[in-house]
Amino acid sequence: MTSVNKTAYPFDKTRLEAVLNRRFFYAPAFEIYGGVAGLYDYGPPGSALQANIIAEWRKHFIVEEHMLELDTTIMTPAPVFETSGHVARFADWMVKDSKTGDVLRADHLVKNVLEARLNSDKEARGLAAQPVKEDEKDKKKKKKNVKASPVQLADEIVVEYERILAKLDDYTGPELGELCRKHSIKNPDTDNEVTEPVQFNLMFASSIGPTGQHPGFLRPETAQGHFLNFSRLLEYNNGRVPFASAQIGRSFRNEISPRAGLLRVREFTMAEIEHYVDPEDKSHAHFGEVRHVVLSLLDRHTQSAGSTQITKTSIGEAVDKGTVANQTLGYFLARIYTFLLKIGINPDRLRFRQHMANEMAHYATDCWDAEIQNSYGWTECVGCADRAAYDLSVHSAKTGHPLVVRQALKEPIVIEKEVPEFNKKNLGKKFLKDSAIVQQIVGDMDETQLLSLKEQLSKGSATITSSDQRSFELTSELLTIERKTLKQSIREFVPNVIEPSFGLGRILYTMLEHNFWCREQDIERGVLSLPPLVAPTKVLIVPLSAREEFDPLVAEVSMKLRKAGVFSRVDDSNTSIGKRYARNDELGTPFGVTLDFASVANRTMTLRERDTTTQLIGDIDEVIKVVIDLVEGTITWPEACQRLPAYDGVQAIE
Amino acid sequence: MTSVNKTAYPFDKTRLEAVLNRRFFYAPAFEIYGGVAGLYDYGPPGSALQANIIAEWRKHFIVEEHMLELDTTIMTPAPVFETSGHVARFADWMVKDSKTGDVLRADHLVKNVLEARLNSDKEARGLAAQPVKEDEKDKKKKKKNVKASPVQLADEIVVEYERILAKLDDYTGPELGELCRKHSIKNPDTDNEVTEPVQFNLMFASSIGPTGQHPGFLRPETAQGHFLNFSRLLEYNNGRVPFASAQIGRSFRNEISPRAGLLRVREFTMAEIEHYVDPEDKSHAHFGEVRHVVLSLLDRHTQSAGSTQITKTSIGEAVDKGTVANQTLGYFLARIYTFLLKIGINPDRLRFRQHMANEMAHYATDCWDAEIQNSYGWTECVGCADRAAYDLSVHSAKTGHPLVVRQALKEPIVIEKEVPEFNKKNLGKKFLKDSAIVQQIVGDMDETQLLSLKEQLSKGSATITSSDQRSFELTSELLTIERKTLKQSIREFVPNVIEPSFGLGRILYTMLEHNFWCREQDIERGVLSLPPLVAPTKVLIVPLSAREEFDPLVAEVSMKLRKAGVFSRVDDSNTSIGKRYARNDELGTPFGVTLDFASVANRTMTLRERDTTTQLIGDIDEVIKVVIDLVEGTITWPEACQRLPAYDGVQAIE
Known about the structure:
The structure is a homodimer.
Chain A: H1 13-22, E1 26-28, E2 40-42, H2 44-63, E3 68-70, E4 75-77, H3 78-84, H4 86-89, E5 91-96, E6 103-105, H5 106-124, H6 134-142, H7 155-166, H8 173-182, E7 198-201, E8 205-208, E9 214-218, H9 223-228, H10 230-236, E10 243-252, E11 267-277, H11 287-290, E12 294-298, H12 300-304, E13 311-314, H13 315-321, H14 327-342, E14 350-354, E15 366-374, E16 377-388, H15 390-399, E17 405-422, H16 424-431, H17 435-443, H18 447-458, E18 461-465, E19 471-475, E20 479-493, E21 496-503, H19 504-514, E22 516-519, E23 522-528, E24 539-543, H20 551-563, E25 568-570, H21 577-586, E26 591-595, H22 597-602, E27 604-609, E28 615-619, H23 620-632, H24 637-643
Parallel strand pairs in A: 3-10, 12-14, 24-25, 24-26
Antiparallel strand pairs in A: 1-2, 4-9, 5-6, 5-7, 8-9, 10-11, 11-21, 12-13, 14-15, 15-16, 16-21, 17-20, 18-19, 22-23, 26-27, 27-28
Helix pairs in contact in A: 5-7, 13-14
């Protein structure tokens, strides 16, 4: 076996980006029109990679866990997001450059400036500076002539900056403004001061129908589409909980100033699960199967203390200790972890970070993000929130449509409570049309209020007041209140929702970073070591040339692979076999087979593995069998080397 | 074999809709908020059905024809649609009720009113009226008390109405207004007159970024995303044409007054192919493989003559005769036909209709729609247009980015032409900064203009004029024009685009109509005879009850099917086996296997076929093999009956 050194050169984002652009994994959308920040198009390899990640997601979650798939609408009438709280609160804090009017996201501004100062400080102290961030590069491009000399900071300032950065996500808008003033944070592009942070709602607005009277928004998440269909889903599931719905689809966020490539975009594909669970029992039937999975956790206490030190612990222990709130949340964290590893994320660069109190979305009671480390830092790629009963409750209250589970109790529950009873005839005579209002006021009373009313009635009469301040006098001829024993045989409850939510573009990009390297012999030869499971093309078929004599064999191999469900591509372009392999190393194609004159004469074919570039040789059908096993993951390359002889690059024609 | 009578009852849309709603194939979006016309959510079986249709589409087109898949952005900056012509012309004609202000689509109004009058006429003549359309029903609901008595029309009026309806799609807005006046067409809901038709742009508008300065639209088709990436796609394809790009994704049209369920919606999933071809050679390499396919064609001449008579002809003949413009267009019509049949469309209710002149989209030079007959009439489900060089040319002209193919010529072409040559030094001296303008004016001249200029120069001097009406005098000291012989070794051309464009929701809905029927014995028992290829669930696993003793067998069968890639579902709900089968007949599940006490004792299992309800029995593993073959389509049910003994409904435990 040739051993491969994948770390001969440090990761170089510029090289990766050149490969992704050259091979059209993705590109800025509307590029020939000058582009629009935060919008990207996926080309053939990017689309295929994304489709393969989605297919595996569907298998790993929807099929294996019997989830109910949905495909709901993107365009959403405004009242839905008014109820959900997005109209009021789905916003970021933005500041403006006080002179140019350029718009900046407040938290990003603070982060970029403080990180730059810390890097400068390190340089001044003669310590190795951290790799320069992309945003810094942009800046430098803009004012190349102002190459600042390193500035050393006081030790206590360094500590303070680091503390601020560790809990950055926890600051409110006014607090971010305060930070800018206190630490003289200005727009680094212009050195101008910035305005006080103001909120900017991130939803794209439109209007539905020809009259312009129905405002709508593009959904910023798929979740509301699940919640609004809850009753139908529950019925489809024969009325039982727990169960989960799942959806893969496009969402939109009008980001203030998107940078960082696929990591912060205005339109993106999400995969979201809403798992509905009894609020009194958040255990998970299959938790035992994942209990042993060890995760890197960064809890909220650690962060509040200004640290980012992770703790490695089994999810079983984390739930037992209460670090992770419940089994269902823990179960999904472990399943997210195994999914990400399957598609090629490096486990050493994956952590689960708990949200701090102010950071949490308005609906969540606990939330952990799967964060993946990449050249931009640690990036949230999957959120896993316990949204409690928030969404179902607010939609139910708003629409009057009950979004509840009704469960037959094995043992009826016996309760005692105060029960009001009206004498309808007397009530009607006295209050006429207002009878209904009177009944409603009393009906809305809680136990304490009923008891107080009962006491007043026992003393002769009581006066109640409607919401519009009208008074009604009641006597025991009209109303009696008695303590009664009631049997309850149905339990009704609003389920809680655990939501794992995947940003597929972010996962795709960080995965590409984790799998990119350059060959030790030649830094110009980039390789994407994509797992066969998600690689856009599994097998490259390379005829020696485009000559017709190879056509029947190319067609045969191509057809046999297709029949086995293995996606292959033929490359008969007019260039050397070496160049064609190099191109496909950049495309992440794990295996290549070559057809030459010996193939025509002897029916042999060579098989090349991308990472090691080692080659094997064998009968065409035997090689096909081996390559199918490799792609399906039933054998490894060393095992394949046991089944076929090595090929030394010289093939004789008998 | 039990023979099955699927036509015992006429198709009943109300029954189908009840099934689709009850089983949550799809439902109005935001239903608990009162819904929004034209927006629908797909539930679990609808999502799965759609996903299966998409998977087959991907296989039939993208994989088999080596198309380049794309995934481009929905949110699009306005300049793109200004260039493409959508801002100016992507509109429908709408009229308003002159009193209530209600908005109606002009062509739909004419159609509904004239069809209603023709139906009333038939009734008056004692002929069987056509089944009442949904739109009519809605109307009747609104004014139940106004049950109009049938009105007979003059014979020549009947002929005129039929002629209008046959060429309805060919009228312009003013012509529709004229029709309303001439035939007293009023809003049928109110009997009020309607206003003159005005254009309403169907794109949803929004704005991109925090400053509101960048107007954007939601794409009404995915096509522009292909065209803007043409250069990258061509390079990915090693510079060769023909090739095709393909994309599956969401598009949006702000329909004026959507009705007709999934057939006219505001948000929908499309699958679009853009096939780039040499304008001088629109032949197709694989046309020979489809030449024999017989299609039902309705050409534009037939329609213009006021008829809707179809002609059955092989696509080979249709192309040879020039009815269909070229081989590539013909090839795709045939491929569309085979795709639609595969997923369950009835060929007798499928026709290809050619667009008439006024009807054609602004970019098309020829266009055929695959129309599928259903209870709403004939509905366009796939468009297949020759967009010529329109899109690539306009984007290229607007952006200055060449969207062209450059082809090395085998034989260089030798041409003679007039070539202007400036004396730059003298030119600069005389015109200073205006030199560039002078050069541009001459550079933009065609052969005739150059010849005329040459003649004037030979006579002493010539005067040329800029676009802003400034004159420049030229002499032969400044400019000479000579006839030169040039060799051209590269041919540069803008490819033409053939575009098959699929509306997946419409295909899905019409397919459901074509496959719905009620059992002869019991009209209440609806069946969806979905082909196994697209059925949401392929095999239902039915344990006799939810008792634990069946669990290991259920798990075993479930796992073995999953391993074979066959999607199954377990139904262990607390109801009779018969009811569970009936539910799955409505869900279109083609096969069911039952596990009972005999299974536990003997390892036998029964297998039921949905349409015939006949059952077979055999060893569990043998039944699994048969069911896999059935699902993969390698055997038919009659063949399965040869492999397993019939089951009479009584199973003994040995």
